[in-house]
Structure prediction request, 688 residues.
Amino acid sequence: MKPPVLRLLCDSNPMCFGSTSAMLSVLDFVPAESTALVNGVTAELLARDSVVDRTISVNNKSPESMQRAVDFEDFDAVLVVSNQSNIALYADVGLPIFFVDVLYWYGPHKQQPVWSLAERTFIQNFPGVFDRLESQVYQEPPVIVGPLIRQAAVSSPGRKGTLIQIGGARSRWIRPGDNSLFSEQVLSWICHQELNLPQPLTLACGKDAGKAAQHSHLADSIHIDSFAYDDFISKLQQTAVYITTPGQGAVFEGLAAGVDLLFLPPQNATQVLQLAIYERAGLVAEGLNLTALDPLFDHSALEASEEQLTMEVLRSLNRINTPEVAEQVARHLRFQYETLNQVHAVRRAFIEFIGSPGGSLVAEAIHRWWCEQWM
Amino acid sequence: MGDFQSPDGMLAGIGWTGKRLKILWAHRYVLPLERQLYGKGFTGAELLPDGDILTCGFNALYLINPIRKTCRPWLVRDDLNDLHDVAVQGKGGERRLIIANTGLDRIDVFRGDGAKLLNRIPLTPLNSESPQIDNDPYFDELANADRPIYLRKLRDQVHPNTVLSLKDRIWVSRLNDRALTLVNGEKVTYLPGLPHDLVPWKGRIWMTTTDGRIWSSNPDLRQGNPRCEFDSYICTGRSGWIRGLSISERLLIVGCTRISRMPRERWTDRSFAHTETGLLLMNRSDGSSLDWLSLEELGEHPKVFGIYSWSRQ
Prediction:
C-alpha cells in the first residue's frame, strides 16, 4: 500500500541554534510535511527555511504549553533533537518518537525515559561518545551518526573577507544585552589592533545578539547579520577566514568547508567543555578557555549542572570584559591565524573521525519506518 | 550529452535545413570539481517554458541557458546518485520535479523549486527473473564504501532510465525489467529490448529500445501491447546504443552512441564493431532515412543522451 505523506512534528531544543540546524540537516532528506515548534531564537532558522512547511509558536520547554498549542492528532510522528521536555507527553498521546541527541557525550547520565520510549534514537558523533555508549545498556542501542550539518552544494571560487559566527547566542539562561554582553565582547576582540583580518568583517548571530552588538562603538566596522541557515552556509563558502565560538555544528561546518578556521572563547556551558575537548584533540592551542583567561573562574562549576555552569560562564565573561583580556584574545587569534598550517592535519583527521554528514541516515530510518507501517 | 573520456557535460545545438542536419554550436561544461565523475556528463533533461534546460548530471541538476551558454548547479544533494532523467509535473505553485535517482533505484519527487523533498518512491524489480548484475565489473570501479554516496557506482537492480509525466501520472522506463510502467509498478508494458526514451505522441507513448527499435504503446490499457513502429537499423543501416528520441509530424530523430565494449546488458546480437555516434533523422511516415549527422567530432567518445526540440525564444 502506498504510504500517505508523513506528517512530522519537529521539536528542537530552543537553546541557541545547534539543535535546530541539526534538525534542518535531517529534514532535508525526509519526504514529509514538516511542522516545526518555534520558540524565540529557533524561529530565526525554522520560520524561514524551505524544508519546514509550517511552524507552531510555543514554549516547547513546557509540556503544559505544548498541550494547549499542539493538536497531536495532526501528526504521525515526532522528530526530537536534544529536547527532553516533552518526551512523556509524546509517549502519552502515542506519538512515535525519533530522538537525536547532539550532546550525548555531555551530562551526568544517559538513562532518561527517551532512550526506551523512542522508536529510534541517534547520537551525533563526538569524542567521548563511543566510550559512553559502550558503558550503557539499552533495549535498542542508539545509532551514531556523523555531523548533523548542511554543507554548501559546490565550492565557490574567490573567497574573501572574514565571517565571525557566535550562533543564536540565546537560551533560557542567556539573554543578550541583558545578562550577556558576549556579542559586544566579540567585537572588541575581532576589531583589536593586534589583528589584521581579511576585510570585510561579518558577524553572524541571532537577532537579539545582533541588536546588542549594535550598541558597541565598533559596530560601524563590521556588518552584523542574522542569516537563514542556507544563506549562512553560502556565506561560509565564500569567506576567506571563519572565526567561530567552540560549538559543534558551527565547527563541523567550518572544517567541512575547508575554510581557515579560528576559535573564539566560549559563551556557554557546553562550549567551555567542547573547547577543552578541541584543545585536547589539538585542533586549537590552549589559552582561550575561560579557565585560562579568568583566574577567578570557579573550576568546581565544571562538574555542576548546565545551568550552574552557564551562570559561572556569564559571571566569568563579565570579569574578563577588560582591555587586557581583549588584547590577550586578539593575540591568541593572531597566533591561530599564523599557525594554521600546523593544525591542518589534525583538523582533517578530526573531521574524518566525526564522519560524513549524518542527516540522511536519520531521515532514511524515519522514512523506512513510515513505509513499514503501510506494507 | 556526456563523454566516456571526460567528466564534462555537453550540449549541442543542431539545425535542420530541410535537407541536411548540421551542428550549429556545441558547448562543453566543466562541472564542479567535487561533483565530477569521469565518463559521466549530462544525462536526461527537461526543456523549460523559458527556453532554459534543466539537465541531470551524475549527482546534481544543472540549469543551462543555451543562449548565454551559462550552466549553474540548480539542485545539489548528497543523496543523488547516477541521475538519469528529470520531468516537470504540473504548473505554478503545484509544480513538481520528478527525478530518476537511478543509482538508488528510486524516483524522487521535489517541490517545483527543488527546495523540498516531497516523496521518495523506491522501485523494486517486477519479478525475480530480472537479470542480476552482482558480478558486473562496471560496478567494481568507484564502488569503495569510503566514497560519498554521490560519487559511488551503486549496483542498481531496476535502473530507471526515463521519467515521463503524462496526465498527472508518472511513467518510468525500467532497463533491467525491460518494461514501461507507472511509477507504482502498475500498467506494465514489457518490451523485447532495453527501454530508454519515453515521448508522448498522439495519444500513445513512443519509446526507444537501445537496440534501435522504436515502439509505441497505448497508456490507457491495463497492460500495454507495444507496437514496433520502426527498426532504425533495418531502415537506415546505422546503429549504435540508442538514447534520445524526438518526434514531429514529419520527422523522427534518434541518438546513437558508439559502443566500444559489450555493455552489461547485451545490446543486440549484432556486432558492435560498426556502431557510430550521431543523430539519425527519419521520415516518420515511412521510416526512410533523411540524414545522418556524426557527432564524433564533439569529443573523444561522446555519448548522446537526450534530444529536445528547442528554438531561440
Q: What stands out?
A: The CA atoms of residues 99 and 105 of chain B lie 11 Å apart. Chain B has a mean pLDDT of 91. The longest strand of chain B covers residues 21-29. Chain B is about 0% helix and 45% strand.
